Amino acid sequence: MDFNIKYTLNSVRIPYLNGSEEYKKNETFKKINDNNGNTVETINYKLMQIPESLIDVLQEENFIIKGDSKNLYLTTDKKTFQVKQNFHSNCVLLLEQNKINNYTSYTTQQSELELVLTKIPLDTSTIPIYKYESDLLDEDDQNNEKKSNDITKDTLITSLPMSLKEFEEQWRGSLLIQLSDMTIKKIPYKIESDIIDLILMSVVSLNMKYTEIDHDAILNKVKSFKENDKNIDLLIKAVLEKFTDTNKSLKMKSIAIFYGLKTLRQKCPFSQRNFIELNDFYMYWKESFPSYFNCDLDIDFLIGYFAKDLVTNKILEIDPKRLPKTIQKRVPYLMNIQRTWEQKHIQPFFEELNEQGIKPDNFIMKFAKRKRDKSGKYIVTER
Known about the structure:
5-stranded mixed sheet
């Protein structure tokens, strides 16, 4: 099977597969002088190595190359691959055959592009936030809101370096909704919180099993509580998709985490440096659910969102989005909150910045001290 692909690489940076942290500018076209002194534009070819297993797939599926300012990707209908550059010392010539069966080299290659299977998270940061119609005060507000709705689902699919199958899988539970004008909006935290409360109240009042959720019955029940928005069906379905699996069972751990994070923000907010007893936190966490809804709770569900004092057993909310963005600044910041951490509690704050995929223990020890205490727990302290 022959592939004849032309892709402009001028704005794309391809990371090296064999360890270099530097990038070279990839130019698709180069300007040179011919034998007559005229400036001509020639193509700078790149050789891509495609595994045999993928060639069979490409005969049946769409094959798209996408790039941004950071990386180059190849997507099929079901999978996404990051393109990386692998340099070697071999002499590789690309040849063309002329009419008398002679071969002429038209370019040399010092590297090959290789495909690395990857997963790209669905980025919803640029999606406009949905507002209840009742929150739009007048007609001007509604018109301004419509003007901002300039992102469609097709536009989003095209812009993201991921396969169509992966996009659809991540769309479910993303809290994105497609309105009647084909634009998309993201459900904000307040609306999500309102609706999940109503969903769980409906589950209790309808005496449903947590493993047998009837979406239609829940939809009708919640609508009886909240009918002031023409898009209420879309809102309810989107929140239901986030908190139920494809077998229509409630995702109990996801629900526990949602209410746990809500309780952290309310009862021990970082802004107030308000550490509280762990037992008190469990009490507040349990009380945050709608009446008669029972859910298993474990503080480890919330790892990555709190600090826990090893002496007092008190906890404090940590918002990872507000932490310093470099490891050199983040470690002193965390150690200023408390000087001693259990490794499992601090590790998520390191992992986010471990871009080179270094073994977690080794990455921590590059910037902090790590030791085992008498109980067998690994402890992390400042250097």
